[in-house]
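User: Structure please.
Assistant: Input sequence and predicted structure:
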Amino acid sequence: MTTPPPDVPTLYWDDAPPPRRKRRLWPWIVSLVVVIVLFGGAAFAGEWLARDLVERGVRGALASELGVPADQAEVQIEGLVIPQLIAGRFDEVRISAQDVSLQGFTGDVDVTARGVPLTADGPLDSAEATVSLDQEQVRTLLAGVEGFPEESLALTGSEVAISIDLNLFGVAIPVGVGLTPSAQAGALALTPASLSVAGATADAQGLRDQFGALADVVLQTWQVCIASSLPAGLTLTDVAVVDERVVAQFDIASGILVDPTLQDSGVCG
């Protein structure tokens, strides 16, 4: 009697192991995006806070050192502040303030400094300043110049215009003078560039022929020292009349933060 073979299971394709379920990626992507957004928001909040603290600190220093009210000054730090704080140096700082009272005159001041050390214990990379005066402020500045007719001063075009009366045989004849401003050894110089006599255009020789030595007061170059009202580290480089304002440009010495001699008052000549 033959023993039947054991049952052999029959294989079907349907008996293959079930496929693994694919993990969905979108929850991970969403989580990553949320983390990035939160991190960016925290960094933005930190950057805003750091910028606010630095700018308020600069305004406070201006108030204590120069008497500039904090709400009167604008401070701009170029670029991200936090990396610059870590590096200990600001790439560029801009400071603007209106009606700053200096020694002898008042004006609007704009300063741009590059490579500014955080603790003010080293040199700047470079810096320059602009001081701008309106017509009344220019009159105040020139009021201390002996013989200068500041009450007749007007800013017109590219000139500082004044009027001087010359007496000829007991008759006062008005002479109009257009003065061109320039920088000369730390002083603001005003040199005659155009002339008129009783409203008619004139020249220097014609004025001398008509008035003789009396013309000297009209043809002179007027000067007022600016350097003595500012730190020695500021060098007056240019002066011009722009949009009815006298605008003076200054170079700032890189060592002004650390060299006491550059912080003392300057001199002309």
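Residues 8-14 have pLDDT under 50 and may be disordered.
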